[in-house]
Specification:
- This protein has helices at residues 14-25, 76-81, 108-119, 134-140, 155-170, and strands at 3-8, 29-36, 45-51, 63-68, 71-74, 94-100, 123-129, 145-149.
- With 171 residues, the chain is α/β, with parallel strands linked by helices.
- The protein has a single domain (3-34, 75-170), classed as P-loop containing nucleotide triphosphate hydrolases (Rossmann fold), CATH 3.40.50.300.
- The chain is globular and about 50 Å long.
- The mean pLDDT is 94.
């Protein structure tokens, strides 16, 4: 099975769709999730990275960036410090990457880990922002990846397409 990339803009339901996919696959999960928190007094929204499993912490060690006025600022050193979340996946499991976006653009170690995971046979399920950058373009164009583009209006249809793809791949 090719890697499953759910591509779309913010708020269209990529993470919700990924939850359905993981529930359908019923395989052990590793990898990472990112979480955008509520707006602070200065108008910015902090964004954190967490292991896909286990407890979540919210401190500077996993603060990967912030968003304000439709602009984002990434902290490459924090991304790079969490590249280990993308390596060493257990055989037969799923590598979750939720989500890949533009904040990673300068995080060379993290980006290399993402591309390395896509080069493996380990199944990757990822949400990918529908923005243009060298990194995101390379992820979406990866030879072992299948992109499913989702919008608010196409969520149900895309879920049916992904479900059919998963079931056909299990045969």
């Amino acid at each position: 099975m090719e890697h499953i990339l759910i591509v779309g803009h913010q708020g269209v339901g990529k993470s919700t769709l990924i939850g359905k996919i993981l529930n359908e696959l019923q395989l052990p999960v590793c990898g990472f999730v990112t979480k955008k928190e509520a707006q602070l007094e200065d108008g910015s929204c902090p964004v954190y990275i967490h292991s896909a499993v286990g407890e979540r912490q919210y401190d500077k060690s996993n603060l990967i960036g912030s968003c304000k006025d439709f602009c984002s600022t990434g902290y490459p050193e924090v991304f790079d410090a969490h590249a280990h979340l993308i390596t060493g996946a257990p055989e037969g499991g799923v590598m979750l990457m939720d989500e890949l976006g533009v904040m990673e653009n300068k995080a060379e170690i993290f980006r290399a880990a993402v591309m390395g995971a896509l080069d493996t046979r380990q199944l990757v399920v990822a949400s990918v922002r529908d923005k243009n950058s060298e990194f995101l373009d390379a992820v979406r164009a990866h030879k072992k990846a299948r992109c499913f583009y989702v919008t608010k209006d196409s969520r149900d249809k895309v879920w049916e397409e992904v479900l059919s793809y998963i079931r056909a791949s299990k045969r």
